[in-house]
Structure formats: structure tokens, C-alpha cells
Design brief:
Layout (H helix, E strand, L loop, with lengths): L1 H9 L1 H14 L11 H13 L4 H8 L3 H24 L5 H10 L7 H8 L4 H27 L7 H26 L1 H7 L3 H17 L3 H6 L3 H26 L4 H12 L3 H12 L5 H22 L2 H19 L2
Length: about 325
């Protein structure tokens, strides 16, 4: 199981590059997946929702200051960064501009929770933020996209709203129903396999999105380096600004790390599917590139923070305080 997890999940960034190049070089065998990408994405979100537990969410909601801070930081920082990139870099490419704005208006990705865990952040806060972003994204994603991307391409708020309900709310509700219907004990036994299932589904989504975009990408190949550099800069800016704002708002180090990953690592799989569905295959390129780069940047940053004793010391202080509270008369 550990070997399979390492190959499928830990090397996800490498597989995304490999499958992306494969779908571009040999598109024909994967064209049939294009008709299934929305269902595959719904399955990814359903699998994610199977890991949500009410006690973990309840612990954060009882002390909502960090939760509110993380929510506000994410929905101000990321959409504004996407809008800036659209105006400054993609002004002559309306599809890339619209795709970047839409991608920046998507909720946090599940990978942010993993990076938070590795980097000694507050996992409960990360999971709670992902849940809230996901539940509210059917309203927020269409609103931001319609307001800012309509300058470049026609945008239908209603169509995006319906798609977000189908792709996000329905799978989340179904996942929660399955978790508490089947029983948490049984779901916990399956949890080690769930990240691998999500990764495989994500690879299939990438193949289904890039293969039909082969001709369009070939005509605009010179934009690939620009998209790569721009996407990487957006990720770094979002991570840095989110962490800085979180600390200015006096969150703890662990909470700030959770907010940082929650802001910088967002659901680009969803962004790619929505961009391809509403604007065309070429518009999905920024989101597809983001799906690869945020894994690379996030994994590197999480590994660095894993060796930083700051948050570990904070954990020990919290444990000591909790023990003292339990033993106090």
C-alpha cells in the first residue's frame, strides 16, 4: 500500500507532466474521456467529502476567528491575483484571461489539506476552510467569473451556477450521506485508498481535457512558457500574501500555515473543467498548468516547513496547556 501511495500520490506532479505530454502527443486514444470529465470531477469531490467529519469541523467553528480570516483572505487574494494576471499578461489572449480569472475563483483544493498536514499547520482549520469554500463556491465562482471575465468572453452566471451545483454541492451531499449511512468505521478503513482514487481520477481528467485541445495548443505553443511562469508567480504571491495577512490578523503559526496552503493551492481540476466547458479547451490551459505547479510548489514548501520547529513547539505548548486544563481542580 505504501509503495502504491508513493507512486500514485507522492509523484503526482510527475504523472501530471507525463500524462499531459502524452495527451498532447498522442491524443486519439484519450478523446473518449472528454465526455466524462464532469462526472470524473464530481467523483473526485465525492471522494473528498467522504473524509469530512463533523467533530473536526465543529472544533473550528467554536473558535471562528481564524476561519473567518482564512475565508476572507482566500476570496480576496486569489481572485484579485487572477484578475491582475489576466489584465497584465493575457490582455491579447481573451481565452487565457477568462480561464485564469475562472481558475482564481475556484475553491481550495484537497491537496491544501495534505500540505497543511505535512507542514505542521492546523489540519482541522484547513479541512473546515475547504468545506466552506466548496459549499459556497456555487455562488462565489460564478459571481467572480461573471463580474470580471465577461470583459473577455461571454459569461453566463446561471449556467455556471447550475454547473457548480451539479459538480460540487451534489457530490459533497452524496459523500456526506455515504459516510454517515455506511458508517464512519467502514469509511475510515477505506481512507488510505481514497487519495489514490482521487489522483487516478485527476489523471483521467487531465487526459480528457488536453487530448481534444491538441490542435489549439499546437497553434499557441509559444504561450506555454508564459503560462508556466505566470502560474508559478501567482502561486508564490498567493502563498506569501495569505501567510503575511494571516499573521497580521494575529492567527497562530499553525493557523497561518493552514490559511497559506488553503489560499495558494486551489481546485484547478474544477477550474479546468469549467473553463473547457464554458470557454473552450485553450482556456483550460492556465488551470491545467496550475494543477501541476501548485503540487510542485506546495510539496516543496510543505517539506521545508516540516523541518521548521516553530509550529511543532506550538503543538507542544498547546498539548501542555490542554493537559493542565484537564488536571486543574
Amino acid at each position: 500500500m505504501r509503495a502504491a501511495s508513493f507512486i500514485i500520490n507522492k509523484l503526482m506532479w510527475a504523472w501530471l507532466i507525463i500524462f499531459g505530454l502524452l495527451a498532447y502527443a498522442v491524443p486519439r486514444p484519450f478523446l473518449w474521456l472528454h465526455n466524462w470529465v464532469t462526472y470524473l470531477l464530481g467523483a473526485v469531490i465525492l471522494v473528498m467529502s467522504l473524509t469530512l467529519t463533523m467533530p473536526a469541523l465543529g472544533n473550528v467553528f467554536r473558535r471562528p476567528r481564524a476561519l473567518i480570516a482564512g475565508f476572507v483572505i482566500k476570496w480576496i487574494t486569489v481572485p484579485l491575483a487572477g484578475l491582475a494576471a489576466a489584465h497584465l499578461v493575457y490582455a491579447s489572449q481573451p481565452l487565457l484571461a477568462a480561464g485564469t480569472i475562472l481558475d482564481g475563483s475556484t475553491p481550495a483544493g484537497v491537496s491544501s489539506n495534505l500540505f497543511t498536514y505535512i507542514g505542521h499547520g492546523s489540519v482541522a482549520l484547513a479541512v473546515s476552510l475547504t468545506f466552506i469554500h466548496t459549499v459556497l463556491s456555487p455562488l462565489l465562482t460564478p459571481a467572480f467569473t461573471a463580474a470580471w471575465a465577461s470583459k473577455y468572453v461571454p459569461v453566463s452566471f446561471v449556467s455556471l451556477l447550475i454547473q457548480m451545483v451539479e459538480l460540487v454541492l451534489v457530490p459533497v451531499a452524496l459523500g456526506l450521506a455515504i459516510r454517515y449511512g455506511v458508517g464512519e468505521a467502514r469509511i475510515r478503513k477505506a481512507e488510505p485508498v481514497l487519495p489514490m482514487i482521487s489522483a487516478i481520477l485527476l489523471y483521467a481528467i487531465e487526459l480528457g481535457l488536453i487530448s481534444p485541445a491538441n490542435a489549439v495548443i499546437a497553434k499557441n505553443l509559444h504561450w506555454i512558457p508564459v503560462v508556466t511562469v505566470t502560474t508559478t508567480c501567482l502561486i508564490l504571491v498567493n502563498l506569501a500574501v495569505a501567510y503575511g495577512l494571516a499573521r497580521l490578523l494575529r492567527t497562530t503559526e499553525r493557523q497561518a500555515r493552514a490559511i497559506m496552503f488553503d489560499t495558494g493551492v486551489y481546485n484547478s481540476g474544477l477550474g479546468a473543467v469549467l473553463a473547457a466547458t464554458n470557454f473552450g479547451a485553450f482556456a483550460a490551459l492556465p488551470a491545467l498548468m496550475n494543477a501541476t505547479m501548485n503540487l510542485i510548489v506546495g510539496a516543496i514548501l510543505a517539506s521545508i516547513l516540516q523541518n521548521d520547529p516553530t509550529a511543532r513547539d506550538e503543538d507542544e505548548s498547546a498539548d501542555t496547556a490542554a493537559a493542565a486544563a484537564r488536571t486543574a481542580p
